[in-house]
Specification:
431 residues; alpha/beta; Rossmann fold; Heat Shock Protein 90; 3 domains; 10 helices
């Protein structure tokens, strides 16, 4: 038999003949075991484990049976099952015996054996109130019935024990994961607070550096060598870049820390407002803009505007080398009917093999001299969308433009949904 399997059985019955019958049925047969050992020795093989033998203990009254169960539990060798007679005068009957057995060891499988009962069976079942550890068999029963019950219920006890061990392991793993998650959340909060504090404190000295370098440039105008002016210009440029990085860090920290104020937000109106601002600055360019009407979402207006600003900044920036830029903002239905919003451009695009870097802090797929920026825009978008319970992803190919998709809780508004097109015009501008 499997050395790990519990085959310990307790028989509680006041009739000695019943114990003799059970022992004949359940105990290992020495003759058969000797024959197996002889065959193994003759052919030079290991003896096959026996599947017949059970370790059977006897008790002739309920009190004795309960005492045996208590001793077995204390010794760390519990019984897998117990056969319990219903009538055992003058002591406890089977129902009271089973009740007391389960107070000590609730896992033991029980078979009540009886020719008749002092209780209606409905009352017995209601009193014991157990469905998964109790069977009732009527006397007289066949040898095969006892053998099969012993095999099945001891195997069931082992399966229940394994399930309990696995459940304990899973619960422990969940507790560890929960503790780890709490520690990570606390660590992230501390890191975000530290980044915010450092960025905020660095803003002033960088502003002073930039201001005094400009004053110095004025004082040296016409009185300094080209090398000195070159050094000064590098200082000024670095101060500007440092200020931009600090503003990006503060924006990212704000996206993570600010309290959400949920309300209906019109993405269509926000997109048109931002695109209108872009047309008023920067060098002239030709561009076609398509913004779908009725793009309503439910979220924090300030953060969603920040996310759209970063997405549209990228669309304008990476399509700036096109002779005719195309920008589209719209919505489509996902496979499960979920609202999916998108910002699409016909710019330089990127290789999807590097898409994993898109939403990492200060990760860039293009050189700064090609397209300036801090690399914090998309991670800010991801943080904002994530705080609203959504997700963001991209699709692109080199030199074929890019589309950024994102999901947000939708908010319906009255009126039909239609597309609004801004026709291509000359002298459009962008940052």
């Amino acid at each position: 038999m499997n050395p790990q399997q519990n085959r310990r059985i307790l028989l509680v019955d006041d009739m000695p003949s019943i114990h003799e019958d059970f022992r004949k049925i359940l105990a290992a047969r020495p003759a058969a075991r000797d024959l197996d050992d002889a065959e193994a020795a003759l052919f030079g093989q290991a003896a096959a484990p026996s599947g017949d033998g059970f370790e059977l203990d006897s008790a002739y009254q309920g009190q004795e049976g309960v005492a045996r169960v208590e001793a077995s539990v204390q010794a760390g060798r519990p019984y897998a099952m117990a056969f319990v007679d219903m009538r055992m005068p003058p002591g406890w009957d089977g129902v009271e015996t089973v009740e007391r057995l389960w107070r000590i060891d609730p896992r033991v499988q029980v078979v009540i054996c009886t020719a008749y009962s002092d209780y209606p069976w409905e009352e017995v079942l209601a009193r014991l109130d157990v469905q998964d550890r109790l069977l009732i068999v009527k006397k007289p029963f066949d040898m095969i019935e006892v053998s099969q019950l012993a095999r099945t219920l001891t195997a069931k006890w082992d399966l229940a024990r394994q399930a309990a061990l696995q459940m304990n392991s899973l619960e422990e793993a969940v507790r560890e994961l929960t503790a780890t998650e709490a520690a990570l959340r606390q660590s992230n909060k501390e890191l975000e607070a530290f980044a915010y504090a450092v960025s905020h404190d660095l803003r002033t000295p960088l502003s002073i550096m930039n201001a005094f370098s400009n004053l110095l440039a004025r004082e040296l105008d016409g009185h300094a060598s080209e090398t000195v002016l070159h050094y000064l210009s590098r200082i000024q440029a670095s101060a500007v870049v440092g200020s931009q990085l600090i503003e990006a860090l503060l924006s990212l920290a704000q996206a993570s820390r600010v309290e959400l104020h949920m309300e209906p937000v019109d993405l269509s109106a926000i997109s048109r407002q931002l695109l209108g601002e872009y047309r008023n600055v920067g060098p002239p360019r030709e561009a076609s803009i398509t913004v779908q009407d009725g793009l309503w979402v439910h979220g924090d207006r300030r953060l969603i505007r920040t996310a759209m600003q970063h997405l549209l900044d990228n669309a304008w920036k990476f399509s700036s080398l096109r002779s005719h830029a195309e920008i589209e903002v719209g919505r489509l239905d996902g496979a499960d009917g979920e609202a999916v919003f998108f910002v699409r451009d016909n710019g330089c695009g990127f290789d999807m093999a590097y898409a994993g870097k898109l939403f990492g802090t200060f990760q860039r797929l293009h050189a700064v001299h090609e397209f300036p920026g801090t690399g914090a825009g998309l991670v800010t978008v991801s943080r904002i969308v994530g705080r609203h319970g959504g997700r963001v992803w991209a699709d692109s190919r080199p030199d074929e433009g890019a589309t950024f998709y994102f999901t947000l809780p939708s908010a319906s508004r009255q009126g039909p949904t239609r597309e609004s097109h801004t026709e291509p015009q000359e002298n459009r501008s962008a940052p």
